[in-house]
């Protein structure tokens, strides 16, 4: 089968033939239809410092996908050939304290699809049945392909109650934009989002952001967002999506007392924050990683059934043979999600 592979320990990817994945009695073999390009995939393609320590070549990339079930193992129940499915890309041990308690998203031994094991940038991918999400309700294939990052947005946005709250999102990448859509849909009063890309901020406006602010210009920090929205005491909820030190510091400075921050953005290095302000303002900071299995997946499905529109987030679609062009567009970091078509 054709697959997009990190073939050797150097920059670049190769479209090549690899064997179809082997499956056991508890596994599902999936014919891939669409995949989404993630920042993780860009890191692996560039073969940066993180990729060099996290990935062992050769490796088939990809963890955002939708496909059709091609076969199921003898022990698999409630999943049938022909089902439309996506996959939870975090494979957990099932034996640690958190797994046994039903908190699988907190497993200390998580293996990432397309990072620690061969992934979905291929004609077929295999997953344990426990990692397969069957789409029981109708869903657009492009949207189904990005359930993984959509789940990151939902997990982050719904960490704290949003109804009637003023929400600040720092970072208008695709996940930040989806979080803005979720926050408005879930009943936030105002949703302000900041970034340095005018194109991405325009997408955020399309999904319902109250205010999309370019903070690269002088005098346009988060305090300006407060002023434009007429806030007197600061933001109630912060969703940090950028991993940028200046964004986190500015967010802390503009939270109301008792404000709550969910932090998904992954910093490249350690950085300082004003912990005295966090203490004296009684701000809660919670780290977010991945999705809750499978509460987040249920929430995603219900949000879409309830009319949440993520179509503006998809800004490019390519056949898998044109992967280099697709990756180049994704690497510009000026648009939304880029889709590869494997059908």
Automatic annotation (TrEMBL):
Domain of life: Bacteria
Domain (Alcohol dehydrogenase-like N-terminal): residue spans on this chain: 24-133
Record NCBIfam families: PRK05396.1
Quaternary structure, from the entry: Homotetramer.
Top EC class for this record: oxidoreductase
Residues binding NAD(+), per UniProt: 175, 195, 200, 264-266, 288-289
Keyword check for Translocase: no
Record note on cofactor: Binds 2 Zn(2+) ions per subunit.
Domain Alcohol dehydrogenase-like C-terminal: 174-302
A GO BP entry: L-threonine catabolic process to glycine
Signal peptide feature range: none
Site residues, Important for catalytic activity for the proton relay mechanism but does not participate directly in the coordination of zinc atom: 148
Active site: 40 (charge relay system), 43 (charge relay system)
Record-listed Zn(2+) 1 binding positions: 38, 63-64
Listed name of the protein: L-threonine 3-dehydrogenase
Role noted for this protein: Catalyzes the NAD(+)-dependent oxidation of L-threonine to 2-amino-3-ketobutyrate. Catalyzes the oxidation of 2-deoxy-scyllo-inosamine (DOIA) with NAD(+) or NADP(+), forming 3-amino-2,3-dideoxy-scyllo-inosose (amino-DOI).
Source species of the chain: Streptomyces niveus (Streptomyces spheroides)
GO cellular component, one term: cytoplasm
PROSITE patterns recorded: ADH_ZINC
Annotated InterPro entries: ADH-like_C (IPR013149), ADH-like_N (IPR013154), ADH_Zn_CS (IPR002328), GroES-like_sf (IPR011032), L-Threonine_3-DHase (IPR004627), NAD(P)-bd_dom_sf (IPR036291), Zn_alcohol_dh (IPR050129)
Named cofactor requirement(s): Zn(2+)
EC number annotated for this UniProt entry: 1.1.1.103
GO function terms (MF aspect): L-threonine 3-dehydrogenase activity; zinc ion binding
Pfam family, one: ADH_N
Binding residue positions for Zn(2+) 2: 93, 96, 99, 107
Entry keyword rRNA processing: no
